[in-house]
Structure formats: C-alpha cells, structure tokens
Write a structure and sequence with these properties.
Blueprint: H1 2-48, E1 50-54, E2 60-64, E3 71-73, H2 76-96, H3 103-106, H4 113-126, H5 130-142, H6 147-156, H7 161-174, H8 176-179, E4 182-185, E5 195-198, H9 202-207, H10 210-229, E6 233-237, E7 244-248, H11 269-274, E8 282-283, E9 289-290
Helix pairs in contact: 2-4, 2-5, 5-10
Length: 298
C-alpha cells in the first residue's frame, strides 16, 4: 500500500509538471508574438517619420510624424534670421506701446520661433485694423533686405519668367526659417518653374490661426515681393493639410479660403474672446455646429 500510494503521488506530480510546462510554453509563444508585434509597430512608426533638410544652406531639419506637431531643429543660420525678424517686429510693437512687450512673448528666447508666433499675436492686438497689421509685417520683412538692393533690383531687372523663377529659388533657399521645408514646382498656367510648394506651413501649424495666416503671412508676403522685387505673387494656403503654394508672376482670387474657422490649436483664440471678437460656435440650419471665421478677419 505504501508503495502504491507513493507511486500515485508521483504520477500526479508528473501530470502537474506537464500542465505547467505546457502553460509556460504557451506563455512564451505569446510573449514572443507580442515582442514581434511591437517590433513591427516600431518599424512602422519609424517609416512614418519623414525628415527634411531645409533653410539657409540646408542645415535645418523638420521631422514630420504620423501624429502630433512637426519637430523642427533650426540651424545657427536660421536662428539668426529668426532673431533678426523677432527683434525688428518687437521694435515695431514697442514703438506703439511705449516700450512694453507682452510677458507671453518675453518668456521665449529671441532665437525662438515660439517668440515669433506670440509677437504675431501681439501685432493683432496692438495694431487696430487689418490694413495696419499687414503694413507693419510687410515693413518688417522689407527691412530684412537692404534698401539699395531693392531699388537696384526693381530698376535694373524687369518682370519676366526668369525673374519669377529666380524668386522661387530665393524663397526656397532663404525663407525656410519662416515657413519650413518647401520645393520649387511648375506654375500651373504655363509649367514655368516659378512656384513654391510648402510641405506644411510652419507658421500656420504653430499659430493655428486663419486670421494670422491672412494678415501676418499671405498679404504681407505678396506685398513684400511686389515692393522688394517688383513681381506679382500669390500665396494660396490649403487648410485641409496645412500645405501652401506660392506662385510668382500671377494674381489670383481666393476670397473663400479665409472664410474657414481657426484651428483648435489657435494661440490667439483667447485674445478674440477678451477683445469681443467672433470666437465661439454657431448652429447651422442642418443642426451641425461650426465656429465662425477668425475674429482677426474683416
């Protein structure tokens, strides 16, 4: 009996060991499968990241992720350009505020693009009326180029296709610090390489404001090229994907583009509320809810 009992216990233990081994085997296979899944997902995530070199001498980098904001790494040259623009724009603002600058703008470095965005917001508050806002930004852009160069360019070089091509080249090479990566593309009307496609406008992405896009970017840019180089330019943003096309040598109508509401990330929405602007929601006849156009637009 003792021998039989001992044998029975040993057999039971063996069954338990067998079950435990099977369980551990299944768990190991599940862990291996999970690790493989994670590895595949990591590979997919890496593939979805798209890095572009741009800016002055192509030393800056922008990394576009599948989700979230674009990551920018500004070169020394582009940081200098940002700082120069920030200094000139801040000077314009302080001329109208007796030397006062908002705490939001001052919390960022002079070399920071975030400071540029907050200075742009402040332009919308300090300068009343869209004409005044567009004028101060245009003047700031013009001050980046010595006046003698602007005068000579307009006097010696008359508008033509090759001038439009030259301006598209200048935009890609020397204004990436302001708008992000871009490339030269054919002009739709005739195929001349006189247009610039912005992959995803840096200013529009970080400000999220349709009104600022109009008053701080679109109109001042068009005015800048007309006054600096004597050429027509048309800036057409795409609010669906954040891209933008700048076409030289043409004037087009695009009034409907700016009837769209601001992005949810708009950094000046609270300024619209405090200023009594049209920030809020409206209910349409079909029951859907939509925000009205940006409070900065006329």
């Amino acid at each position: 009996m003792m021998s039989f009992a001992s044998t029975s216990v040993t057999a039971a233990q063996a069954r338990d060991i067998h079950r435990t081994t099977l369980h551990l085997g299944r768990r190991r296979k599940q862990c291996i499968k999970l690790e493989r899944t994670r590895a595949v997902r990591d590979d997919d995530d890496e593939e979805k990241e798209d890095t572009h070199e741009y800016g002055i001498l192509g030393k800056s980098r922008a990394t576009y992720a599948s989700s979230g904001e674009t990551s920018y790494s500004d070169s020394v040259y582009d940081k200098f350009a940002i700082a120069l623009f920030n200094a000139k724009l801040a000077g314009k603002i302080m001329e109208s505020t007796e030397g006062v600058l908002s705490s939001e703008a001052k919390q960022f470095s002079m070399f920071s693009y975030q400071r540029l965005v907050y200075l742009a917001n402040e332009v919308g508050v300090v300068f009343k009326g869209t004409d005044a806002q567009r004028k101060v930004v245009t003047e700031t852009l013009l001050e980046l180029i010595p006046e003698i160069i602007r005068i000579l360019f307009k006097k010696l070089i008359k508008p033509s296709n090759w001038v439009d091509e030259l301006n598209s080249f200048i935009t890609v090479q020397f204004f990436g610090w302001l708008v992000g990566p871009s490339e030269r593309v054919p002009r739709e009307s005739d195929g001349v390489l006189a247009a610039v496609k912005l992959k995803k406008c840096r200013y529009l992405e970080q400000s999220g404001c349709v009104g600022s896009c109009m008053n701080f970017c679109k109109v001042p840019t068009e005015n800048f090229f007309k006054e600096a180089f004597g050429v027509d330019a048309h800036l057409q943003p795409n609010h669906a994907d954040g891209s933008c096309v700048l076409t030289f040598g043409e004037k087009l109508s695009d009034e409907e583009i700016f009837s769209a509401p601001c992005y949810l990330t708009c950094k000046s929405r609270k300024l619209g509320i405090s200023s009594g602007g049209g920030v809020g929601t409206i209910e349409r006849n079909d029951g859907s809810v939509q925000e009205p156009k940006c409070w900065k637009l006329p």
